[in-house]
């Protein structure tokens, strides 16, 4: 059913560990580049709107409305 000789086995540590660390470092470098070069690219657009202290945001109104309808 399988190979009993050590010649045909691929050990986990030197191959897959280095491969996983390399992929992790590349993804980390990509996100560091993205954050440093385009800091507002991953941000929420609502953070750039001017705040109005008189008006309640729509999302807060609907969350409170959901709590008082009896479905919670």
Quick structural overview:
This protein is mainly α and 72 residues long. It contains two helices and no strands.
Report on the structure:
Helix content is 50%, strand content 0%. The chain is mainly α. The chain has one domain. One of its GO terms (molecular function) is metal ion binding. InterPro entries: Cyt_b/b6_C, Cyt_b/b6_C_sf, Cytb/b6-like_sf. Keywords: Electron transport, Heme, Iron, Membrane, Metal-binding, Mitochondrion, Mitochondrion inner membrane, Respiratory chain, Transmembrane, Transmembrane helix, Transport. It is a multi-pass membrane protein.
Class derived from helix and strand content: mainly alpha
**What is the helix/strand order?**
HH
Q: β content, as a range?
A: under 5%
Largest sheet, in brief, is: none
Which ranges are low-confidence, i.e. pLDDT below 50, for 5 or more consecutive residues? none
What helical percentage do the residues reach?
40-55%
How many domains make up the coordinates? 1
Mind telling me the C-alpha Rg?
26 Å
Count of strand segments? 0
Q: Tell me, briefly, the overall form.
A: elongated
Number of helices: 2
Mean pLDDT: 82
Could you tell me how far the N terminus lies from the C terminus, measured between alpha carbons in angstroms?
A: 56 Å
């Amino acid at each position: 059913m399988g190979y009993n000789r050590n010649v045909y086995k691929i050990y986990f540590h030197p191959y897959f560990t280095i491969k996983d660390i390399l992929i992790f470092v590349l993804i980390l470098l990509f996100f560091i580049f993205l954050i440093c070069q385009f800091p507002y690219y991953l941000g929420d657009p609502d953070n750039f709107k001017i705040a109005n202290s008189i008006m309640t945001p729509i999302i807060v109104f609907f969350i409170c409305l959901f709590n008082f309808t009896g479905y919670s």
